[in-house]
Amino acid sequence: MTATAGSLMQKSLPNWDNLSFAFTETDFMYRSYGDKRNVPIWDRGEFAPLADIKVSPAAAFMSYGLGIFEGLKAQRSADGRILLFRPDKNAERFKRSAVRLSLPEFPAHQFVEACVEMVRRNERFVPPVGKGSFYLRPLELAVEPKLGLGPSNLFLVLIYGCPVGSYFTGGAPKGVRLQVLEQGRVAPGGTGYAKCMSNYAGGIYVASQWKEKGFDDVLYLDARHLKYVTETSGSNVFLKRKDGVIVTPSLDDQILPGVTRDSTIQVARSLLGMKVEERPLAIDEVIEEGEELFCTGTAWTLQSVREIVHHGITVKFPVEDARKAILDVVRGIQTGSREDTFGWTVKVR
Q: Domain range holding 10?
């Protein structure tokens, strides 16, 4: 992996006290080209100053949505380290998503090395302790000029990153408000378990309609029965029942295997002694048996749900105990203030 020659115009640092979840230009990006007709498929990759990319207007991803992406974070610790959280897990999902869209798998070791080096090269953009995190966005795109449906031969992996704050304006300190929708986020038997571009495109329109009415997001039911909870626009869902059991929808073709979801389950079970069940979760159970509701995701972290609205009826969830306990551990591991007994973090510096 080499750096592109040429002078680097350093970008301005943001105001650390006013970070939001938005794009900020940083110094470096990473790119690697792939060709299915070559062995190995992928080149070694290179780091270059962050800049626009050049692709054909006929690039397959632009017409047919043949693209996938990931999201992961690095954070500073109080003792001066920079820690990247579970990049190997994102690398695994990146490969699974690629297979689903007929893209070549990007080597996991190359993915992790590139992410670590991306953080290192953009180190000055990693926010100070307690001010936010450095968010990485890896993408794989089919860039072969193509007219007509079918697999491609030419591909591009890109990674860019930027400093981010809370996903919600003001941090949503009292929790988010969700409208329950009796429709699926994705089609049954489709690409719901993959992190591909097309899964999110249609949901932007859906969620925006409800955001204009005062909701923070929507909560989708399953596409087959319109009975079971699946996800919000971009996060997994957890319910703490009145009997103390935590339930999250089991993974299937409509549920994305979230890294924060997996981390939440492991922390709750192994470190906090909580009972966690992975099974279908009916919306009626959420309403009748729920004491606490929260969502998980790299961007959302662990976010409380203060209320949902279903068939015009508002259901409130005032309890946050489980979420706060789990988040305290997860965030402690991410920031190095707690022992990483799982071996999840990779030290960048």
A: 2-165
